Amino acid sequence: MDSLTQIVLGAAVGEVVAGKKLGNRAMLWGAVAGTIPDLDVIIGSLFMNELDSLAFHRGFMHSFTFAILFSVLISFIVHRLYSSGYYQQKGHKISAMVGAGLMMIFMAGILNALPFIITGGVNIIVLLISVVLLGYFFYRLWTKYYMKNPMENVEMDVKHWYLFFFLTIVTHPILDCFTTYGTQVFQPFSDYRVAWNNISVFDPLYTAPFLILLLIAAFLKKGKKARLWFTVAGLSISSLYMMWTFWNKAEVNDVFEDSLAKEGIVYERYITTPTIANNLLWNCVAKGDEYFYTGFYSVLDKEPIVKDILKIPINKSVIKGYDGDETVLTLDWFSDGYNSYQGLDNGGIQVNDLRFGRFTVDNEDTDNFVFKFQLQPDSEGALKMTSSAGGPPDNPDGWVKELLDRMMGE
Description:
alpha+beta, 2 domains, 4-stranded antiparallel sheet, 8 strands
């Protein structure tokens, strides 16, 4: 899921495992550990081409093996940090403050970026709340951390640190498995991508209550039982919401199967995925021999039927001669075979990943896919990715309103 949600989850798990011994440091270390698997994005962007980076993300660094092994390393390092007394020194405090500050600024940036992406402008209320919270955080960091000397002793052995980091790291890829992108949790033994397709990569109804209750817990004193209560309440609410998304998915699957049967559509398999930022409106895609059959269904629709099912040609002929091409095979693996192809005027090929659907629910616009990749043959005749297009359209007011209207049912 999105980075903000992973930070919140890591912080909450950290509080549950070691909040009594570490106080808010448990949340901060948990937040750090919860972001570690997503550092594969930075590694990919620095050292790999676009295609390899796409395949590397949610790969080994999102696996159970990585969580097991890396937790050994980081637990020994952090245990040494506290057992040696180095954490008491001013140099460490400054470094820790810079790291914590950057993380909080990053979180504030995400909070302010979301309304900008959706509406095309800054939300003043969100901006003011972010500034106030950041100011209070830095004030607390200065008065309760930097100026406090000596710091409280940390009584945690290596085994407890290992449990702490393993749980805060491994919950990251487990949460990602609920989304559509796919997570290679069994690397390096298998590149199978686990994707349960029941929640959007960004869902504010999952994250917001979780975040609010965790912030309340963070303002309470170390050792207070209420800290754990608020944290567990956040975890419980988010877990209940996750269970509700499976209920919705089961209903959508039944409706889509019935709708395909009523239309007499023969298909090999199908997939249903929630649209961005909600769990009410779902994208439904069935794969046939020559066409994909796709439509939208909201759990608030009055009739249990997927209306206006659209036929999208698979166009396998477009990649004729490239069946064994590495780029084509990688994108087919990435999308689990839910790819359609289009020939471009410049001689290139566009590959559309239908799992994520389109940003618009208007059936007349069949090219506005969330994920689409453009390929060009090189001098040796092999296809190379030249761009990965997608992202929200330029008219946020239009597609957001259209999405909200369709979400509320028809």
